[in-house]
UniProtKB/TrEMBL annotation:
The chain crosses the membrane at residues 28-51, 57-74, 95-113, 264-287. Signal peptide: none annotated. Keywords: Membrane, Transmembrane, Transmembrane helix. The keyword Chaperone does not apply. The keyword Transmembrane applies. InterPro entries: DUF4407 (IPR025519). This is DUF4407 domain-containing protein. It holds the Pfam family DUF4407.
Amino acid sequence: MLKNFFILCSGADKELIQSSSNGEQNKYAGIGATVFFTAVMAFIAGSYALYTVFDNIFTAIGFGLIWGLLIFNLDRFIVSTIKKRDSFLDEFIQATPRIILAIIIAIVISKPLEIKIFEKEINTVLLKEKNAMALNNKKEVANYFQTDLDKNKAQIDSLKSDILKKEKEVNDLYAVYITEAEGTAGTKKLGKGPVYKEKRDKHDTALKDLALLKTTNQAKITELETKAKTLQADLDKKVAETQPIIEGFDGLMARINALDKLPWLPSFFIMLLFLAIETSPIIAKLLSPKGEYDFKQEDNELALKNALAQNKYQSELHRKTDSEIYDKVYSNIKEDNELYNYKKQKATELLKLQADGFVEKQKKSI
């Protein structure tokens, strides 16, 4: 039963192969098995590739099954249409388009399986790319908010600087009136005289201005710091929103690009393996000598061609014979006076009727 199934997969004529020897049947069963297992590998490869796209196992299996059946049908068609000829060159020219198609199929089938085989290495490449993308994303988002953050920080620094300047001014005034009281500077008179009182009042006024400035600027600083926290929160939120997009950067195209960044030799040999599997039925048919099945198929084709040629010849001969007979019949009729007189009479009657009709139309128009 399994042998009959593989023969069916090879695309061989059922009646011809069953009437052939057991060895011939085994040859085509082997070709059919190669076609079948190539389709199975195409199903696995297609399912995995589509799973990376849809992330749904049932959808992937459904589309993978369709892909596997498509490859099976193509391979079966390719193998079944290659026929043995008397010249190997003629056979190779006949098989060349099919070999090119087989190469394309092998490349398409091998790529998803390569992605699965080198999955760990690809994940490493993708991780590096994701980290680089995350860093670049943070820089871009930070650059987007940087102007507002810098402006906000500059305003806070300016307000703090005003407070420091005012504190320095108050401290300087304090030192002035203290040294005046001690008699070490200013009038250099020990005691709290009028000059001391004037300098003390100036210091006290500046101290009050400092307290007011601190209250006003601190309120502004608090507001600006709150705004800075809001800007930082918006920045972090933007980074968090874009991070899932970066984490999701592991689709089919990303994995194919990551595979291209790995050493090419292992991937190349895997593709060669699939190429050998895909083209093996075609190569087997090209290299194998003409067998019993091929002779029977050629005999049937020759019989059909002879029958068609004979039918064509008989049809052409029948046409020529009929033409000659009808030519002779109409030649004899042409010389028949009775038929001539009859046709002349009818033609005369028709001309009279046409003339009468023309006269009637003319009378109506007058």
